Amino acid sequence: MRDFEYIAPKTVKETLDVLDEYQEDCKIIAGGQSLLNILKQGLMAPEYIIDIKNLEELNYIKFDEKDGLKIGATTTHRSVEFSDTIKEHYNVLSEMERHLATVQIRNWGTIGGNLCIADPTGDVAPPLLAMDATVIIANKDGEREVTVLDFGVDYYETVVGPNELLTEIRVPVIPSNTGIAYLKYRIVEGDAPIVGAAVAFTLNEKGACKKARIGMGGVAPIPIRAEKAEKMFEGEKITDTLIEEAAKVASEETTPIPDIVASAEYKKRVIGVYVKRAAKLALTRAEKAAN
Amino acid sequence: MSNYSVIGKPIQRIDGYEKVTGAAKFTTDIRLSGMLWGKMLRSPHPHAKILNIDTSKAKKLPGVKAVITSADTLHIKYSNWRRYPHLMDETPLAEDKVRYIGEPVAAVAAIDEDIAEEALGLIEVDYEVLPAVFDPLEAIKDGAPQIHEGPTVKNNISEARHFEFGDVDEAFKKCDRVREDTFYLHPVSHAFLEPTNSVASWDLNGRLTIWTSTQTPYFIQTLLAMVLGIKEGNIRVIKPHVGGGFGGKMELFSDQYCAARLSMLTGKPVKIELDREEVFIATRRRHPMYYTLKTGYMKDGTLVAKEAKVYTDGGAYNAMGPTSLYLSGFFQIFPYTIPNYRYDGFHIYTNKNPSSAMRGFGGPQAEFTCDSQIDMIADDLGMDPAEIRLKNGMKPGHVIPGLAKVGSCGFEECVKKAMESTKWKEKKGKLPMGRGIGMGCYGFMSGGVFNWIDSPYAYSAAYIRMNVDCTVDVYIGSAEIGQGSDTVAAQIAAEVLGVPMEDVKVIRGDTDSCPPDLGAWGSRQTLMTGNAVKMAAEEIKKQLIEVTASLMVPNVVYDFDIKDGRVFIKDRPERGIELAEVVKTAVRAREGQALFGRGIYTPHGKGMVSPAYSFGAQVAEVEVDLETGKVNMIQVTTAHDCGQVINKLGVEGQLEGAFVMGQGYALSENLITDEGKVLNPSLIDYKLMRAPDIPDNFTSLMVETHEPEGPFGAKEAGEGLTNPNAGCIANTIFDAVGVRIKDMPITPEKILKALDEKKKKEGK
Ligand SMILES: Cc1cc2nc3c(=O)[nH]c(=O)nc-3n(C[C@H](O)[C@H](O)[C@H](O)COP(=O)(O)OP(=O)(O)OC[C@H]3O[C@@H](n4cnc5c(N)ncnc54)[C@H](O)[C@@H]3O)c2cc1C
Known about the structure:
The structure holds 2 protein chains of 2 kinds. By secondary structure, chain A is α+β, with helices and mostly antiparallel strands. Chain A has helices at 12-22, 35-40, 77-82, 84-89, 91-98, 103-108, 111-117, 125-130, 148-151, 227-233, 240-252, 264-290, and strands spanning 5-7, 26-29, 48-51, 61-64, 68-72, 134-139, 142-147, 152-154, 157-158, 165-171, 178-185, 195-203, 209-217, 224-225. Chain A folds into 3 domains: 5-51, Uridine Diphospho-n-acetylenolpyruvylglucosamine Reductase, domain 2 (2-Layer Sandwich), CATH 3.30.43.10; 56-171, Uridine Diphospho-n-acetylenolpyruvylglucosamine Reductase, domain 3 (2-Layer Sandwich), CATH 3.30.465; 178-290, CO dehydrogenase flavoprotein, C-terminal domain (Enolase-like, domain 1, 2-Layer Sandwich), CATH 3.30.390.50. Chain A is globular, with a radius of gyration of 19 Å. The mean pLDDT of chain A is 96. By secondary structure, chain B is α+β, with helices and mostly antiparallel strands. In chain B, helix 9 (321-331) runs parallel beside helix 10 (363-381), helix 15 crosses helix 16 and helix 17 packs across helix 18 (725-737). Chains A and B meet through helix 12 of A and helix 19 of B. The complex binds flavin-adenine dinucleotide. Flavin-adenine dinucleotide binds at residues 27-35, 37, 52, 73, 77, 100-101, 105, 108-110, 112-114, 116-117, 122-124, 160, 165-166, 192 of chain A.
């Protein structure tokens, strides 16, 4: 690992100034769970490391019935996992976190860091995609809101510029009669998933599908939605047959990258299985919510 | 018989508290004042000539104290094969050629790790890249790149092993059926949690002390002496607690040599610690093997003849490969009786990191193929796989012509117990699609008869001192590496001398104070070191009984025993003397000399392999996800015959740990290389099983036999248990979904593909 200068700004404003000054020469560190590996492997050699882990300004979980959920970027996986607010209103996030990596990593790793590293297999993005979440990105001159769908650019690449900071994750209020589920496939527990699927169904008063969202991880250079499959549900009564068919379409919407663990064909096939399973679980949950 | 005080009981490990609380010191915890940090420069090429090495820039870097290359060595080839010099093919640092990516070329000592690392970048090595070969089947072809020169190596075959008995060709002709299968066994890493590391310190008296994470302190001592050109007696090897070895720490390695050499050159202690990536790319691994098995059998399931042919991917150096190759051929005929057998094994060099000993020592490969095939034979014949195993299973006293004499053997009882405990008869063939039950069996050695290192000493030895307060100091040279062997030694001494466990202290892991012992490999320490400890303790016991006899003057002189702090007349236990009294009197009577006992063990007249054999049977149940091919382990039951159990907790721990290791071998672990480069050199990408992946239920059954050669009748319980797992899992998967995977590891993707093919065939 190359030597670097360590800077720990005390406020968000100060952070944005420092980022603006060093731009490409610096790299943000939050929990360090991903960045340190990258530095150790020599894949990156920044001159300055900007530590944002202690920015208490960005460590929060807030909820109100109008704007929904707001999570500060440096909130740890573990805090999200245990938050009563999240358990009450967005339980799928708590479930997702409980099975993300290991306790040690969840204690350090942050939800913002997870999104910014943009590992396509990351657990955080698929459920956020299923809930139409957005993120706030700030720089010295102001901030912008970007959907999680538009956040990823390519493999390990996002829209966050070198002078920018992700500050907040926003999740809209979940409509009534909604069921959401996230399921992932891996060979060894505690590992990052090979593929993951999050499905959200909102039912109308007749019990048919009012809105469907399918977020998928590990099946393209960035986390993606299965938009064609989503459309198949909307307005329809959700049946097992429809789920099977839509899962096949979702699988066709993917372009997985083969690696040493699994071939592209295998990932394509397994995501179909997981979309199906997550859809069934989401449906059960939606029906339960409607009753 | 089983009226023991500590033998056979569930005894807490004597290092348990230290380890659980983190107080235990490992080599990595050793920090000496003025200590330098060493780092190794490694080859980036799988095969290349070294034209020139320029270390001048590195030497000039402030903070660098020494840089060494092969020019600073005595150019001595070494390895554990001292008795068979033609197999010694390694040098401490690459001489004129590098043969695998990661091979050490130079080493640096500097005042801190960062400077040492920076210095590596300043060493200039001119390589001429040579064509390389990675697959043993390619390497044996005429015209393949030759990895080693020399008269004994042709077509990269460094060693061939052949054994044969019976009349194989005739026997095949008489068989009702013959089947031939080919298998591929993949490479895996030992993945011990404590990376290879050492601290060496050269002193002004010309003596060297090295703290190192090893399974074989004596090998390190004697081989270091050889390559450094100093006396064995001037080298002190200290083995602190060791975080696992599994066969990957039983040889002298370049980093140990370099730490020592750099310390000699600088006069300062030098620490070298491999990082995880180095451990994966440049330490040892388990042998990949291409295995062809031909077996002839009768319609009633009797196995008649077998022929096995093995091409093993040895990597760039022999390491312990020739023994793995030999033992794989040997364990191929365990635990089933085969009257006619022919084995041809070839150890082939390739441009990859050397394969070597790894828990099971050739056995896991043998048992996977043997046990997969016996299930296929049972399937052919419509027989219950358990029945065919019972029909052909070894019995006590079995003789393998020219190779081995089996003493005790509880194989049949193991199979029966495992069947009964798992309700085999009720489940086999009756579980729903996706769920299966299967069996794997094994036999293994309790220590090797081999002495490749050419030690003139006994294989194991022990000294025991008994103090006047009845505390007992046991000095042994064997290596506790997590398996619990120190606790076993303490139990044996406690039992013989009638003292409680807490009064026994084990002094070990220091060649200055402990007798030489061949160390931890081949599941040898309970039997061999155990026998030495028992002999030493009995020598003291004899002295104590002599004194008691002269005090009590009984009718029959030696009919005494010691138990729970008393020496008493065997037939009249109420008549006796407190042990403490006897010990004090004995010490006084000997002009104040402490009581001292010495013990040794070396096997005699036990054939070519081992003094005794363990046996066992394993039954597993799995669930296979039919849509993804993922295997979920539900339960595992192992019935193990380790003779007399010494420590029940220890055996249980080994049985469970071995299964988890075998589960990883069968299902997920794979040291993947491309053109000789390891693609997954980290614990993130190398898929070890973790706590949530292990079976929901473990059952460990112990079948007790009495092994005449073992201490108190004990045999091994360390490695044999790793051998049946992969075959057992493969058989279980076959029972669950009807597909047979012969190409390891059994990944979900392979299962799914095989299921597709099966469906296609059935659809026709
Ligand atoms: C062994 C292991 C197992 C893992 N398993 C899983 C798993 O199962 N599922 C899963 O999803 N993840 C897994 N991970 C990844 C881990 O969860 C995330 O990568 C981690 O949470 C990232 O957060 P961090 O705070 O540690 O980020 P860091 O490592 O500190 O940073 C990651 C990247 O994001 C940038 N960054 C961080 N915060 C910000 C910000 N606020 N604004 C702009 N840029 C920022 C950094 O510059 C860096 O490039 C695993 C990691 C390890 C080491």
